[in-house]
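Late entry, evening session. Most of the bench is empty. Finally got around to the prediction I had been postponing all week. Sequence below, unchanged from the version circulated by S.P.
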Amino acid sequence: MEEPSIYKREAPSACEASSILAKNPTIAKYAECRPFQTILEMEKTMAGTFGATSTTDEVLAGMDLSGKRILVTGASAGLGVETARALAARGAHIVGAARDLKKARAATEQVLEQATNGGGLELIELDLASLASVRACADALVSAGKPFDVIIANAGVMACPKSQTSDGFETQFGTNHLGHFVLVNRIASLLKPGSRLVNLSSAGHRFSDVNLDDPNFEHTPYTEFGAYGRSKTANILFAVEFDRRHKERGVRATALHPGAIETELGRYLTPEVREALIASINASQPAGMPAFSYKTIPQGAATSVWASVVAAPEAIGGHYCEDCHVAEVIDGEGIRGGVRPYAIDPENAKALWAKSEELVSERF
């Protein structure tokens, strides 16, 4: 049975497909009964066509996404706006979710201006720090009954002072993970076969595993980056378990690190904290590695669009990506590159799912 594709590019010829398979046994094992289009995209994924400096426009060059419907959370600034712009410019219809709709309307004017080939944008209110808002947003989307090809869980907060969401959860875990956990699960029925969930995580997951015994820091000393690390690990684990639960119906999930980008996300970081963080990153890297540098916003959003509509679903499902490729599993110090084993551990993912259901008082 052919796996539905959300791409529209010219498929390779039989000769080209055979050549790809001959050179890539890893791809070959997935190729039986799949269209040549999927084979080509897997080859691109495994070959690492794009990298750390690739931009959204480079990754999406030549793509036709007309007719595709994509939900992007955090569509009021930074990566969310750029992700929406790049996809709408190739014909996708974007549903942008944001807490402040007035801000989102102003920020997404460029999305509407550059939308082509039937692409467009609509906005919906979503405050991830309020489960009432999350549920209202999900209910509205389900009521509309329009399916999605991709959900990009882009919104989040980073390294904020200790605080709580309106439901009493630690702000970073509650906003970055639990808000998206409830939203995505409530609208999961709208994800049609061939669709994807893309969770934005971070290399910051390496700061900490989740703590299911004390998720709200009621007994643990709070640190801004410790809390951020927990929430970003949760984003990956959520993708791992969501992928396991839905892949049989053709829906895949992945998580990714966009890179370090100067956006509103870092609003709580003082210059001193930024300098210390960069120094720590550089000090932890092997000799010969290039020094840390920020990505531009189009470079930062490139992995999001790559994972959403370019990479082969079999290659990224249940994995963690960075710089437009699937990351290596690295169990070592430092926060630059790779994914920690605990963040993709399937049993850890199942345990987080169960704890999350308990915390939000919903079963999915």
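Two things to note before I forget:
Residues 1-47 form one domain.
The chain has 15 helices and eight strands.
Will write this up properly tomorrow.
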